[in-house]
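User: Please predict the structure of the protein below. I'd like the answer in structure-token form so I can feed it into my own downstream comparison script.

Assistant: Understood. Taking the following sequence of 323 residues as input:
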Amino acid sequence: MSDTPPEKRARTEATVDNAKPVHFNRGFLDEQFISKFRTAFTNAELAQHTNVESNGCQAEIMAQPFHTGRLHSVFSAEFLRALRRELAGLTWHERANDLYAFHQTDDLALNTNTHIRALRTYLAGDEFVAFMEQITGVQLTRGHLDLAAQRYKPTNHLLCHDDDVQRGKLTRKIAYIIYLTEDWAPGDGGALGLFAQDNCGNPTEVVARLVPEFNSLGFFLTGHSSYHTVEEVTSDDRERWSVTGWFYGPAETDDMPSSDLPKSVMVEPVPLLEHTCDPARWINAAYLKPQTQAQIQDSFVEQSSTELRDFLRADVFATVQTE
């Protein structure tokens, strides 16, 4: 019989209906672990890879090029296997352009599958959000969590980017990833590569890697220095599965991107004749509706790119083709 108080089990074994419990490893909630991890993670002078162990819980912090944490054996393995079976039954969309190639589900916020819903309920709940605040020292906003699943098939990848995205008064604060593939080896590729920066703040090269590990939770603070990549999956017959997303918090002045561009890249606006300024003369009327524009914005924020088909009015496009 468990010696854990019922109220403690209720907090750490979040479940929905008949789902297998999420069972977040309660040792991570111990004050000693939280204190040790937070002290190291928030130490701006931390320069070496650091392991944190307490009450049987294991975690690590990659100090360079920016602080990246990973917790090991985070959830119930049975729960994650059941979660993956549910994810396998969803519709997967191929995402491919010159920046990335992988497969992704829709946002899982409203998904009603039992284990998917249980995971989101726990991650967005006050206990886990408070835990992430405690170990990172970052203020988060309740009720704002992105969650989706990805499959990286052989040759799939995601090139360098920083996840620094704002939504109105909120901004992404913490990026997280839960790995769902078992027995993944470094030779299979698909590592989370972390970029160093030059004196101008531009990414240079990958100097540290986080190899996918089943039932581990990786995370880092997003911002102007969090350049990272998902390296190409080099396995011939395996897929890299994960659930990823972001926690949000209040946007601060330091979160705002600089608008100071060198004069060499500034382009002088071209004066337009008055009769050319009406978008309705050129653009498909569907794209001028506020509802459509809101959907485009949400899609762009989530995917970092979007495709607008039939953007020009049909008559305008026909004229352009003729000319």
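That's the full token string. The mean pLDDT is 88.
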